[in-house]
Amino acid sequence: MDRTAKADLVSTLNGVFTTNAVVVVAHYKGLTVADMQKLRSQMKQAGATVKVAKNRLASIALDGTDVASIKPLLKGPTLLAYSSDPVAAAKVAVDFAKTNDKLVILGGAMGTTALNPDGVKALATLPSLDELRGKLVGLIQAPATKIAQVVNAPAAKLARVFGAYAKKDEAA
């Protein structure tokens, strides 16, 4: 890799570290190419990305970013998983690590907060941004629906009473 390619990679990684909400660092020693492709496709479906970069170049790119706390984790064969959704990368990495013991989560960072492996696992248990939005919309709609039902209930009861009297008069 020549100097210009290294400089481009460092600037790209710096942009990744400044724009994404969460970065997860893991060891991938022993993963086959098929396993890596499966991990990449699962990350892509969740809206996250996996990148394998030289540790030295990644540590240079970390300078001046919020996630600089992951620099000590960059030892050995590491991969970086990142996403703009604070939960997506952690969720996929933890789920993949459950089924494949060769992926070992070392930690990560969410903004300026450093995460140990347990922190990444705890982050993975949280609902995703889309799930939270769905729950919020459901909570907002529920009171409005109940108010409409309460407001319409007396009118419906009154209509049933009038209907009963009308049937009674027809029968008589």
From TrEMBL:
UniProt xrefs under SUPFAM superfamilies: Ribosomal protein L10-like (SSF160369)
Keywords, ordered alphabetically: Ribonucleoprotein, Ribosomal protein, RNA-binding, rRNA-binding
UniProt signal peptide: none
Domain of life: Bacteria
Alphabetized InterPro entries for the sequence: Ribosomal_uL10 (IPR001790), Ribosomal_uL10-like_sf (IPR043141), Ribosomal_uL10_bac (IPR022973), Ribosomal_uL10_bac_type (IPR047865), Ribosomal_uL10_CS_bac (IPR002363)
Any one annotated GO CC term: ribosome
Family (UniProt): Belongs to the universal ribosomal protein uL10 family.
HAMAP family associated with the record: Ribosomal_uL10 (MF_00362)
Summary of the function given for this chain in its UniProt record: Forms part of the ribosomal stalk, playing a central role in the interaction of the ribosome with GTP-bound translation factors.
Subunit-level organization: Part of the ribosomal stalk of the 50S ribosomal subunit. The N-terminus interacts with L11 and the large rRNA to form the base of the stalk. The C-terminus forms an elongated spine to which L12 dimers bind in a sequential fashion forming a multimeric L10(L12)X complex.
Official protein name in the record: Large ribosomal subunit protein uL10
UniProt organism field: Methylorubrum suomiense
Organism taxonomic ancestry: Bacteria, Pseudomonadati, Pseudomonadota, Alphaproteobacteria, Hyphomicrobiales
